[in-house]
Design goal:
With 143 residues, the protein is of the alpha/beta class. Helices cover 46% and strands 23% of the residues. The chain has a five-stranded parallel beta sheet with strand order 3-2-1-4-5, with helices on both faces.
Length: 143
């Protein structure tokens, strides 16, 4: 039996894989006539990184990256005649993705196989692996 999805979530971080995941999410949401939510999580670990930069400059830089990613999403979706919502959260990306999916009745998560967070992959395992293991719904991993 083929499941019809109603609420689809795609997680983005600015990596090429996440933009590929957006394209896949658009196609799947159109086929299913589903609502599409695009989630960008501002990683709060950055506040604890020892850098030679004042907090305001660091925050501004992180915000600029978030704005850039959202702009890229709009550019890639523009003209595709598709209804979507971009949600921005702050926290640990893998946990925020899973929590958001539980709180918003998401029935499919689409995520890239790798992202920008090489430190996270090295230290505690990939965001993708965490989402696959903890999500309350199906997960499609885009390579």
């Amino acid at each position: 039996m083929v499941k019809q999805y109603k609420n689809i979530l795609v997680a983005v971080d600015g990596s090429e894989q996440s933009y590929d995941a957006v394209r896949e999410a658009i196609n799947i949401s159109k086929r299913n006539k589903a609502r599409l939510k695009i989630l960008y999580v501002l990683n709060d670990k950055l506040a604890n990184v020892p850098v030679h930069m004042d907090t305001i400059t660091l925050y501004k830089s992180v915000q600029e990256h978030a704005d850039f990613v959202v702009e890229q999403i709009h550019r890639r979706i523009d003209g595709k005649d598709h209804d979507f919502e971009i949600v921005r959260l702050t926290g640990t990306p893998k946990r925020e993705i899973v929590n958001f999916s539980k709180e918003n009745n998401i029935d499919l998560i689409i995520i890239g196989s790798t992202g920008l967070d090489a430190i996270d992959r090295f230290i505690v395992g990939s965001t993708t692996q965490y989402v696959i293991s903890h999500a309350p719904c199906n997960v499609i991993v885009v390579k």
